[in-house]
What does this fold into?
Amino acid sequence: MQLFVGLGNPGAKYAGNRHNIGFMALDEIARDHGFAPWRSKFQGQVSEGRLGRERVILLKPETFMNLSGQSVGEAMRFYKLTSDDVVVFHDELDLAPGKCRVKQGGGHAGHNGLRSIHQHISSEYTRVRLGIGHPGHKDRVSGYVLADFAKAEQGWLDDLMRGISDGAAHLAGGDNGKFQNAVALRVNPPRSSGGQKNGANNGPKGDKPKTAEGKQATAKPAKPAAPAQDDQPDTRSAMERLLNKFK
It folds into this structure.
C-alpha cells in the first residue's frame, strides 16, 4: 500500500494558490483513475483506489500547511505504514515552472509542510517536487506562494497535472524514471524533424510544394487546343480552288 500526500491549505480561499499544487495533483489522480469519493479522516480528506497493481490512499491534510505532519503521521500509523511508503507532492520554488523531480529523503529547504512531516515521520519519504518558479527575492516568497496561478500559467499547469496522472501508476510501482518521463511527454512533447510538436511541418497555408532541388514548383501552362477540323469533303472544282487563291 502507498500513501500519496498532497500539500496545501484547506478552503476555497486557497484553492487556486501556487502553494496548493499538491492538492491539485491528487485531485487529478483521483478524477482520472476512478478513486472513491473524498471523505473526512485523519484531519484531512481521504480517497482510496488503485494505481496499477498498487492500492493507494490519497490524503490532503486540512491542518493547514504548518501542521501537515499531524495528519500524515496519523494516517501512516492507522495503516501500519513506514515512511518508505509515503509519497508527498509539494510546490518547489527552486524548480522552473512545470518541472517535476522525484527525490528520496533530504532536507525540507524551509518548506513548512515538509518541516512538519519531518517532525512526525522522519525525512525518509519520497517527495514529488513540482516547480512553480521563484519570485526573485526571499521577501516576496510568502505572497507569491499564497497567490493564485496566473492565467498565463494555466497551459503548463494543465500539462503538468495530466502528466502526473499519466505516470501515477509508475510512481506507485516504484519506477520514478518512467513517472518523470510521462510528465515530460506532457509538458514538453517531442518535436517532429520539421520542428513542430506532434506533427509534420506542412508549412503555412498557400505555400507551393517544393521540388527535390528546393525550388518552388510552378504549373506549366496548358497547350492551346488544336482547332477543330472540318469533317465535310471539299466539293469545289479545281478551277474554283485556283480562283480562291487569288481572292
